[in-house]
Amino acid sequence: xxxxxxxxxxxxxxxAHPIPPNVHWGEGFxxxxxxxxxxxxxxxxxxxxIGNHVSCSAGCSFALxxxxxxxxxxxxxxxxxxxxxxxxxxxxxxxxxxxxxxxADSDFHPLEPAQRLIDAEALAPFFKxxxxxxxLRTAPVIIADNVWIGMNATILKGVAIxxxxxxxEHTSDSSHANISYAVFCLQNKLTPVHILFSSGIYPxxxxxxxxxxxxxxxxL
Length: 220
Prior knowledge:
Elements: E1 23-25, E2 30-31, E3 48-50, E4 55-56, E5 61-64, E6 69-72, E7 77-78, E8 82-85, E9 88-91, E10 96-97, E11 102-104, H1 113-122, E12 141-143, E13 148-149, E14 154-155, E15 160-161, E16 166-167, E17 172-173, E18 179-185, E19 192-198, H2 205-210
C-alpha cells in the first residue's frame, strides 16, 4: 500500500509531474509530493532507491547530479532534508532526519581561490568566453541504521555516521575535520557511550576501540 499510484503520481498532488522513472521504492512508501524530485538530474537508472515504509515530506529535495545516486533503508522518515549528491549518499534504516537538514557529498565549487574565479566565470550564463568548470571533489556520505539527525544539521562530503548515533540540531559534520560521531554499546554491558574519533588517526571504529580511547557521555 502506498499513496503513489501505478502511473507514478502522488494522490492529490499539486505537482503536475509524476515521480521520475529512475526512482524506486518498496511497499508502504509515503510521498507528500512528487515535487521533491524536481531537481533529480541523474542518468543512473536506479538513481534513488527507497526501502519499505519510508516517508518523505514535502520539504525534502533530492538534488542529484547526472552521476549522483541515493539509497534509503526501511522505516526511515525524511522530514524536510535537502539531499545533494554528485556521487553517492546512503541513508540506513530506522533513521529520523529532521527539518532543514542538508546532506551533501560535494562542495559543489572548488576550494582553491584561483579555481573559484574560473568557476564563477563558468557559471555566468551570458559570458561569451565561458571556460569549462573545474573538476569538483566528491566523497560519499554514509549514514548507518537508527541515526537521528536534528533540524538544521549539515552533513558534508566524506562523513560516515555510525549506527545508533545522534547528530544534534544546528551542528555540522565535515570531512575537512575528519570527525565522526558514533554510539557504541559496550560488549556484554550494552551501555551506550558516545565515541568521538578522528579518521585521520583512527581509520575505523575498531581501531579506535582497540586504542582504548573511549569516552562516556558524561565526558563529552
